[in-house]
Specification:
11 helices; Rossmann fold; alpha/beta; seven-stranded mixed β-sheet; N-(1-d-carboxylethyl)-l-norvaline Dehydrogenase, domain 2; binds NADP nicotinamide-adenine-dinucleotide phosphate; about 300 residues
Amino acid sequence: MNIVVVGPGAIGSLWAYHLHLAGHHVSLWHHNPPESGAMSLALQTIAKQTLPAVSFTTNSHDELANADLLLVTVKAWQVETALAPLLAHLHPDTIIVCMQNGMGATDAIFDKIQHYPLILATTTHGALKTDAQQVCHSGLGQTMLGAANLSGEQCTFLAEVFNHALSEVHWVSDIRIPLWNKLAINCVINPLTAIHQCPNGTLDEEPFRPIINALLSEIASVMGAEGLTTSLEELSLRVHQVIVATKANHSSMKQDVAHQRRTEIDFITGYLIQRAQQHRIAVPSNLHLFEQIKQMEQPWIQS
Ligand SMILES: NC(=O)c1ccc[n+]([C@@H]2O[C@H](COP(=O)([O-])OP(=O)(O)OC[C@H]3O[C@@H](n4cnc5c(N)ncnc54)[C@H](OP(=O)(O)O)[C@@H]3O)[C@@H](O)[C@H]2O)c1
C-alpha cells in the first residue's frame, strides 16, 4: 500500500519503519520537514538490536495524492491542525487511520473527514524518539482498529496489514470499547503521576487507594451511561494490573508536565467530563484533577 504517516514522532516513526519493513511504500508528513525532502530513520528493536537507517520521503504532494492510507500519529490536540490542510490533496477513497491516546480527537474535524473511510486505532506499544533519526521500540503491546464511520467498516483487511507489520493487531466491531477501557486507565494513571511526578508504580501505595477508587467509581458511572458494560471492581482490577505491570514507567502526561509540553488532558479526563455533563453525572474527583493539570500547563501553553 501507499502509506503516508502524518506526525512521525515516536509512535509514527515506529509504525513507519515497520510498515516499510513489511513491504509498503511509506512516506512521512511533518509540520517542520527537513529541507532535503527526506528523513532518515533507524529503529532500535525491542531486543535492543539497531536496524539500519531508512530514508523516507517527506511532505510530497504526489505521495499524498497517491496515498491508499493516511496514518495520523500526532498528539490528540494536533489532529485537526495536522489533518485539515492535507484533505484537499487526498483521493476520496484514501483511508484515514487516527492513532491517539484519549477520545474525541477527530470530533472537531469530523464533518470534513467523515466522507473518507475513517478508522480509529489504539495501541499499547511503547516508543520513544532517542534522537531525530532514531526510534526506540520501548514496550511490546497490542493495537486495536475499528471503524468510525460506515465506509470505515469496509476496511477490516487493515488488521492483517497492520498485524503483518507490527503484531498483535485486532479488528474490533465497536472501537469505543477498547478506547473507553484505555481512557479509564489513562484518567487515573496520567493525571495522578503528572501531578505527583512519580512513576506509575507509586500509585500502588496505600495513600492513593481512596482517590483511585473515587475516580474509577465516577468513570464506571459514565461508562455505564454510555452503554458500556463495566463495574467498579472490573475497572479497579484492570487499573491495578496496569500499575503493577508498568510500575517503572513514566506516563506520557508525567513526562509532558516535566518537559513543560502541552498534555493530552483535554482528550482524556476532559473527554470523560464532557460525556459526564451530557449524562448529568457529577464527576468531582476527575474534575479536580483536570483543573490541576490545566493550571499546571497554562504557563507554557500561553507562551
Ligand atoms: N509514544 C508512545 O509510546 C505512545 C504509545 C501509545 C500511544 N501514544 C499516543 O500516540 C500519539 C502520538 O504520540 P507520540 O508519543 O508519538 O508523540 P510525538 O512523539 O510528539 O509525535 C507527534 C509528532 O507529530 C509531529 N507534529 C505535530 N504537529 C504536526 C502537524 N501539524 N503536522 C505534522 N506533524 C506534526 C510532532 O512534531 P514536533 O515534535 O516537532 O511537534 C511529532 O513529531 C499520542 O496520542 C500518544 O498519546 C504514544
